[in-house]
Write a structure and sequence with these properties.
By secondary structure, the protein is of the alpha+beta class. Helix content is 18%, strand content 31%.
């Protein structure tokens, strides 16, 4: 299941990628919020929206940052063993954890 935040009529909306379309989650089920962060507890209900008629062609959707207003971004590095092998870098005992600026989050 791929979730996105897209812009519709100048406003951010949570969407569910369904093939070549994106389902506007709130339009498909008015009981669900239009904000992806608020939607996360209802993922099973979102999954049931596949095939909804409230769709936007992917090429017409302007994608925004997945979660437009995160409080913090936590990242993990040195955790892809195949990439470490390619770089001839030893695998660390623990992955590196670090924060990123929330300004680094972009749509595509």
């Amino acid at each position: 299941m791929k979730l996105v935040t897209m812009e519709i009529d100048g406003r951010p909306r949570a969407g569910l990628v369904d093939g070549d379309h994106i389902i506007d989650i709130h339009a498909a089920d008015l009981a669900l919020p239009s904000d992806l962060k608020q939607l996360l507890p209802a993922l099973e209900r979102v999954r049931s929206l596949r095939g909804s008629k409230k769709r936007v062609p992917r090429e017409n959707a302007k994608l925004l940052a997945p979660i437009p207003d995160p409080g913090m971004v936590l990242s993990v590095g040195m955790n892809y063993h195949e990439h470490l092998k390619e770089m001839k870098t030893p695998v660390p005992d623990k992955p590196a954890a670090f924060t990123k600026s929330v300004a680094s989050i972009i749509g595509t």
